[in-house]
Amino acid sequence: MTRFRRRGLIALLVFAPLLVGWLSVRPRTDRVWSSDMALMPAARFAGDSVYVTGIRNAEYRSTEDFTVSYYDRGFDLRELESVWYLVEPFGDMKGPAHTLVSFGFSDGSYVAISVELRREPGEKFSPVKGLLKQYELMYVVADERDVIRLRTSHRHDEVYLYPVRADAAQRRQLFVSMLARANRLREHPEFYNTLTNTCTTNIVRHVEEIAPGKVPFSYKVLLPGYSDRLAYDLGLLDTDLPFDEAKARHHINARALRYADDPEFSTLIRQPE
Q1: pLDDT tens-place string over residues 66-81
Q2: Are the C-beta atoms of 166 and 111 separated by less than 8 Å?
Q3: Nearest to 180 by CA among 128, 145, 141
Q4: Residue 24: band (very low, low, confident or very high) from pLDDT cuts 50, 70, 90
């Protein structure tokens, strides 16, 4: 046996069990989770109505110190009036960002759906670990004040909240589709993947259900700090302003800080300066 073949055989004997072990790892729902990730939401559909349990409503004193509560609520799908796309760039980095979707109803209330990795206590995100089956995926259904104030008041990230151009049927289909996927993840967990199963790639898949072929493959999906520009160019954002003006108009940090404790928070952060 040649030296090259011996080395190849040794490498195979060393790495094959590691590969088999990695391939055999399965996502789970029964870990000990961080308290803000402990309860997965559930939705029950009946005609024009949906009843959602496990809507998160956390009060944050810091990113690490918070009190988590949940509430349940029924929604009339005929009263769904608006859809909003939120982009949260991370620090000074232009590409990495978190994205989520919020839904507005005729009574002035809003509920957000955020696709996130399901963290264990003390666990931090690593893009490399995100490729290696280290994090499960979950859909967080939350009070809008929860997810926005966490980002503006405590993470101190910039936040942009854009109105989405969608008709009544599209709004309804998007909301139902995201809730249905949240249901599926309760029974069929999945791993988060930094490239293929993220907040933004999941939102794109929901958009594709409504408008197949609408969103082309783009680095702006893999680097979602640019995804608002992509959505603007595709006509998905409900604005006639030039992009830079639209981005400035829908930058909400100052308003979110000013009205953080106002009962009309969601209405006021959408008011022009």
Answers
A1: 999 999 999 999 999 9
A2: no
A3: 141
A4: low
